[in-house]
Amino acid sequence: MSNPTQSAPSPTTEALFDRYLLPKVALTIIVAASLLGSWVSTTLVSDSGIVSAVATWAFLVALGTLVGGLLWKHLFVRPADLGTGAREYCAAMYERFDRIASLAVIVTVLAGSVVLWRYVERFGTTVEAASLAMLGLTTVGIVAWTILADRTVESQFRSRAGLLALTFGLLTLLATAIAEVAMRGLEPAGTVVRMLHLLAFAVWIGGAVWNIFVAVPSGQERPRVDVVAAAAEQLERFRWAVRFVIPTIFLTGAYQAVDAIGLNVSVYVTSTIGLAILAKAGFIGVLVVIFKLCPMWRACSPIEGVCDLEELGASRVETDSEVSTDD
């Protein structure tokens, strides 16, 4: 009897891959919007150098990739997947994420050094600056250890080291938000808003990187029913998170814009900073459209069945029937 859970990639899967343009476009837009945001934030504090903007952007993207990726690795992956036919899929995802995390660690250290120097130049060698440096170094240190340690997927999943890395990554992100607000004058409301903005960004950029460069390639190599089910459930959890991420990014971004340059429409359409803010708002609008179109076009994943959980359930029933008939 043939193995019903193992099959070669079908023409449908290949066709879906051709339509997997929307998530990649979404990731490109997220990166572009974050670069605009970094330029605006550095310019508003009279730090208009391109090096500062790019370094801040690279630091936030790398740190967001680590935090969002660890969030997916330990929370979006289902514990049940480790005991099913999707175990190899989870192990492959962890290996791919480790390679991406290695690059993110390097960028975090290099770009973070420039960002930290900005804060030291502005505030001096303070306890706060030292604390931020220690948080960042602890985060990359723990992540580096988890990458180098040779452990099984079961021992990695929600391990003490993994959750500790996620915790310190979140603390580093929050401390960075505080430092960014302090560059213009620390005040409670602006600090909370900036924290929410960066947290939402990390969830989105980390999830997008995981989905495109980790989950999808690993799933395409193993087009089995258990793998498709695991990938579909993970993607559905990410979709649920994005429902909160999109409005959070938009509303917190709008608050920061109004707080920085006010409500005068002419400022937004006549100044470079205003136009950059409007462009970023437009990018978020495009992301909303993409988020709605992906499931409609079944272009959310090139892994066949992932875009429709109900269809996946039906295919499972059919597979079970075939197994019973063959027996």
TrEMBL record:
Keywords, comma-separated and alphabetical: Membrane, Transmembrane, Transmembrane helix
Segments crossing the lipid bilayer: 21-44, 50-72, 100-120, 132-149, 161-183, 195-219, 240-258, 270-291
Domain of life: Archaea
Protein name: Uncharacterized protein
Origin species: Natrialba aegyptia DSM 13077
Taxon lineage: Archaea, Methanobacteriati, Methanobacteriota, Stenosarchaea group, Halobacteria
